Amino acid sequence: MKRPKKIKNKKPRIRFDLLTIFPNIFDSYLEESLISRALKNKFLEIKIHDIRHYAKGKHKKVDDRPFGGGPGMVLMVEPIYKAVEPIGSRVTGQKAKIRTILFSTRGKKLDTASAQRLSKYKQLILICGRYEGVDERVAKHIADEEISIGDYVLSGGELPSLVLIETVSRQIPGFLGKYESLENIKGSYPVFTQPEEFKPNKGRTWAVPEILLSGHHKKIEEWRKENSS
Fold first, then answer.
1. Cβ contact 104:135 at 8 Å
2. Backbone φ and ψ of 125, nearest 5°
3. Which of 117, 123, 149, 210 has the fewest CB atoms within 10 Å distance of its CB?
4. CA angle 211, 201, 208 (to 5 degrees)
5. What is the residue extent of each domain of the chain?
6. What is the pLDDT of residues 47-92, one digit of tens each?
7. How far is residue 128's CA from residue 125's CA, in Å, rounded to a whole number?
8. How confident is the model over 125-170, as pLDDT tens digits?
9. How many C-beta atoms surround the C-beta of residue 76 within 10 A?
């Protein structure tokens, strides 16, 4: 794979718009580490939208009981539609470069190939469901696709949205600092650091493989390939 050219960022490479009823839930994660640095360096942009701002009535109701009966509450289609509709056209004006995603246990599994595909878009609109689910008309008429991050159930789409943001952002040149940091470039192999020998208690020693201390770069590379997944 060819090394990408260095890019001078005048505008963010990608924008994420998160639709949620818990807008403050993202604060800590987005203010730390690589995501925070990427936001400051304008590799990406993240905007959070409170779905309740688009709801009707004094109490800004966003959910209701499911038709046909059953437990729990379902997020309504109208406030989600009103939240999504102006975002893309206001920001880019190019619908072909925008992708709207609903997180769902029925969705396609998020993987590296999906992250690479999604990183080509200028803007990703992420709809975070809650409660018993989201009105099916959101999946059918508003979202371009449904995505799942695994075979398990979470209370909402906020955690999946953070997983997707980081997975996709890692595909953007400059996000990791070094191109070789991508696991799909260097592979995923065991890594070690100081000390060379760690003794958790008497009689036990956890040592670093000797090959990594040899200084023989070719043999080290071969060892990493053999132990890569």
1. no
2. -100, 120
3. 210
4. 10
5. 14-169, 187-226
6. 999 999 999 888 889 999 998 888 889 999 999 999 998 886 554 4
7. 10
8. 999 998 888 999 999 999 999 999 999 999 999 999 999 999 999 9
9. 19
